[in-house]
Amino acid sequence: MSTIKEQDIVDSIAEALQYISYYHPPDFIRHMAQALEDEESPSARDAITQILINSRMAALGRRPICQDTGSVNVFVKLGMGVRIESDKTLQEMIDEAIRRAYLADDNPLRASIVIDPLGSRKNSGDNTPGMLSVELVRGDLMSITVSAKGGGSENKAKFTVLEPSQSVADWVVSTVEGLGAGWCPPGILGIGVGGSADKAMLMAKEAMNEEMDMLELVRRGPSDKIEELRLEIFHRVNGLGIGAQGLGGKVTVLDVRIRSFPTHAASLPVALIPNCAATRHMHFELDGTGPAEFADPSITDWPEPILDRTTGSYRTVDLNCLSDEEISSWRCGDTLLLRGTLYTGRDAAHKRMVETLREGHAVPVDLRGKAIYYVGPVDPVGDEVIGPAGPTTATRMDRFTEEVLAGTGLKVMVGKAERGKEAIDAIARHRAAYLVAVGGAAYLVSKAVKKARRVAYDDLGMEAIYEMQVEDMPVTVAVDTRGQSIHLLGPALWRKQH
Fold first, then answer.
1. Which of 106, 105, 96, 55 is nearest to 74 (CA)?
2. What pLDDT does residue 472 have?
3. How far apart are CA 468 and CA 375, in angstroms?
4. SS3 187
């Protein structure tokens, strides 16, 4: 019998959440470094390079890898010989830890959880509650896995029930091909097979947090049916040509993790949950002797060549002097460095702008001939102008694109992932352009922001409209004025060649 104190649980989880906000797991860095060596697509290599540079910068600066510091998932395997010394529920303890971690003065994390999801969707303000899963096991230890799951990859979770004779690999590959780039590849696929709908989804979520070993598995070959399936899916998904950030390339997935469980003879439940380039998780155990201790990783874990990145192939663009001629000269795949005024706006801001336009009024910011960035930044600390400020998934803004372009004169949008046909048609019709910044490089992007102030919709918090002054912010042209999309052309090119 061991007795674990409430404070040790709270302290350990709070520290773990801070830790994973700025440290990638070492196994992820190793696999990303190998991906950079293997990748041949220039656009994808640039994206992977930015992710690695950002990861190192976040580790050194102890600031979030990604602006989306995620929903908190806590998996507890509680030994039946454990007594928890507390009058609180485990959920209450975990929420206290989340509150402390996300409101920390020296490294505040973005609160993304909204309460009343079917109604007001008001932000909880402290990222509570967490998503808790508990399993009673033998022993006198409390085993805890903590992860922070970003919304872009979580939104791509899929579930199906196959017939027992159908191929799991076929379904996974077909499903990943249709996911788009909103899950920020390259990343990890967590797959749960068997059980029931809820069991399969839980296994997929847990599988993502296992230590990556695909480099070793490729080297030695499979030793059982599960490893054979992992390798098959790994090679087939990478053969799709999706590449980093969906720009086209050889590396889309770094590892495939699979868990299985007995199921009904008539069923083959399969769950798929991708984890993004901001993979964040850690595991620790409590035995009653005090809180967990976490050792900082060695900075040598990051590959040295990433420090030599140059920007010689980038073209500098002055956002304060955008002309139709300038924008029309951009082509899919061009890499740009943005300078000048850049406004921000996500889902809530776009919804309000469209409502205002429909009422016959002008929006509160003059966007004529300007650029807008789909981002919800982390609050700044110290002398920071703004906290980590990576792009959010642009697809969610597709429904607003035509009305915003037509009603405001906006010319340039910056986000991540692909645009749908409706949005691409609107972009071409208005001779506008869509650019992508690298998802998973939020701290790197924030260093390009030299000034920032809220200028509209202050009550929306991180979804308010900011006016930012940027300098040398790296982006890639994803949809040009002709309606050409790199998220269609890039993967098609690499799927054909490789």
1. 96
2. 94
3. 11
4. strand
Give the tens place of pLDDT for each residue, 57-67.
Answer: 999 999 999 99
Token pair of 473 as six digits:
């912010």
Alpha carbon dihedral 379, 383, 386, 387, in 10-degree steps, equals -50
pLDDT at 252 over 50: yes
Phi, psi of 108 (to 5 degrees): -65, 140
393 DSSP assignment: B
Residues 41 and 132 in one domain: yes
CB of 465 closer than 8 Å to CB of 321: no
Kind and range of the H or E element at 354?
helix 347-358
Rounded CA gap, 233 and 270, in Å?
14
CATH number at residue 229: 3.30.1330
Other Cβ atoms within 10 Å of 276 Cβ, number: 26
Q: Which domain holds residue 209?
A: 151-277
Query: With b meaning 16 or more CB within 10 Å and e meaning fewer, what string describes 152-161?
Result: bbbebbbbbe
> How many Å apart are CA 428 and CA 483, to the nearest integer?
5
**Residue whose structure tokens are 């409390």:** 142
**Catalytic residue ranges:** 350
- Tens of pLDDT, residues 447-484: 999 999 999 999 888 889 999 999 999 999 999 999 99
DSSP annotation of 299: G
Asked if 244 and 180 count as a contact pair (C-beta separation under 8 A), the reply is no
Residue 332's domain is classified under what CATH number? 3.20.130.10
Tokens of 112: 């993304």
- Cα 134 from Cα 96, distance rounded (Å): 17
